[in-house]
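The aim of this short unit is practical: by the end, you should be able to scan a pair of folded records and say something sensible about each. We start with the first protein, listed as its amino acid sequence and then its structure tokens.
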Amino acid sequence: MQQGSHVHIISAGGAIHTTLPAILRMMPGITRICVIADSESYGISANPRIEGERLAVRHAAESVKEIAASLSIPFAREMVFPPSFQSARTVLTRVRHENKNARITFDLSAGPRDLCMALFALAPWIGGEVWTSFGGKVPLRVPVPDRDVRTLLANVNYQTILAVLLRNRPVPPGPAGIPYVPRQYLYKQVWPYYIRQRARKPVEGAPVIHYNRGRKPANDLSQATFTWFMGMLTDAGLADQSRDGRNRRETAYRITENGETAFRIFADPAANSLVKQMLDMP
């Protein structure tokens, strides 16, 4: 999407169409509207009260669609299924990838608690602004923490490391949680994909090293560089560090929930085949 575009995301509730006009007056540059609804809102209930609430949500979403159409603003509806966080992350990852240069805002004035909490938790990861009416008529901006890892993951090597850690995570996680990956195993898995970001100056008289797999000599991953990479990932909270259970002298790592979120949102499938493979997995 072109720079200067603005995607406005609304958590579906029974009165979202009443808040939208105020949002449009406050932020007239909105170029796309997306309503994210809990899957239960579109189910059928035998309970008249619950069915009435769900019907109100569906009618409100249709009213938002009509308002958007009257202003020639493209409209989309997305569905979130339990567990809400993982499903919402998938939806927002797609929204961010399809609108890389867009401003993204959220209206969390309505909708079920789990949906709103998931969207609020994910907003910082995609640089989103959160707004809510707090039960009133005038939406107010809610401050969210700054968690910009885009610059870190712009280096494809961080994407590769997280992809290897993610590949070694059981789905679903076992009773002991996500296992740690020994450092040397992780290093060997990352080595074939390593790409040096800055050209290395040749050292006069140094021996020329020949590599297999079509690699260039400049792309040799040193242990010191790998240690730096892992330190950056652990400091950013994207990976955990511990001692290997079988060799207490060796460090081991595993991906964190924040690490997986960052990887899925910011990793580029064009980076290498491993990154693409892991991004294609649910």
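Turning to the second protein, read its sequence before its tokens, just as you did above.
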Amino acid sequence: MYRVFVGGLKHESNSFSSLITSIKDFAILSPSEVLEKEYSTYLRNTGFEVVSTIVAYAPPAGLVEKHAYLELKERILQDLEKAKKLDGVYLDLHGAMEVKDLGSGELDLVKSIREIVGYDIPISASFDLHGNIPAELVEELDILVAYRTAPHVDAEETRLKAVSLLAKQIKKKVNTSRAIVKPPMLLPGEYFVTLFEPASSIMKLLPEIDSKPEIVVSSLFVGCAWTDAPYSTPSAVIVASENNYEKALLEAKRLAQEVWRKRKKYRLDVEAGEPEEIVDKALQSIKKPVVISDSGDNVTAGGGGDVPLMLDILLRKNASKVLVAGLFDIESFKKCREAGEGSKVELVLGGKIDKIYGYPLEVEAKVMKTTEEEVLIRVKKVDVIVSSKRKPYISLEDYAPLKIDPKNYNIVVVKLGYLFSDIRKLAAVAYMALTPGFTYLKIEELPYSKVKRPIYPLDKDFEWTP
């Protein structure tokens, strides 16, 4: 019976964020829990013995502490060494894990695994669409498969594709040829929502490439623009059958060229503008509810979650029937919990995590509802969710603990970039506020120092061919 080792280590690192990612930020699935994952079940059902290690995941934030990464890596490597004879390895990765003083966590992890298993055993890995892929990582892996949707709805499908391709490679005892081409661009995910053009047309090229007999699988990585690293660009990655490197390279060049050719056409999928301008538009809207993305403080991409700018503007404009979801502020949360429902409290909201773009906002509030992790307060006529955790409010379930129905508000402010399905459906009108923060969409104003120059749009007057 063939034996496959499975595990993973995932993080999307925003190098502009002051939120260092420590070991306590990682949720860790035990090896026995990993055995229950769908990809493990698939392998067992197709005749493989599965040997598991941990899968560790932390929400998007700042760089991963080196000792935290090394501790998690060591757990994986210890289990790998105990596994002894193996026929393949599957890794559940993100692709944009940047480790302080080390660089790409994915590259370091895969190279360390190679030192143990050698190069005769195939390694397959699945990735987020927003992975930053060093060219050397493509040399170290046999199979790379990335999500094809943003917002992501094909994560499990992608993981299953990665293990199924690995299973075929093991059984057929064949190698692969891989090619990567990286157009010199920074492309924030909000400009590449796959539901809309030009992203949708570009992604339709992938099934076309996959249909060619020499191709095993194609992937387009958009990259994470808020990771300041030499490999932070989109990546066209093509895996071909053995001895078909030239074909893989040709298709990778074609895909990368198309991404580059359309560089001036990428657009946000909703109307965007300066924060105050967007609030004015929302207040004047006849359609309700209006959903505003506080894009610079997007916690799904590493934002601090505690910049109070949008709340400040709404209060100054005497807005009513508004929900701000939410603000991460442990101190204010505790004060509200101690005061209890119905109490009046004086709070200093925000500016405790993001001290670059955030600032303290003094308010007088009424505590409306409390739970063990969050409270709902009312400041004038604006409701604010204050959370003890830095969390995104991306689905209707996220509002349920406080028994909030976002449909009942005129305006809902969320600390997101592009909207996920539930909130996208909720919005009668959606706007993007170009707020400052760790996930500032005006990326030309961020202090990049490690990306390779020239790079678009930091540099505009240059040509590139793959």
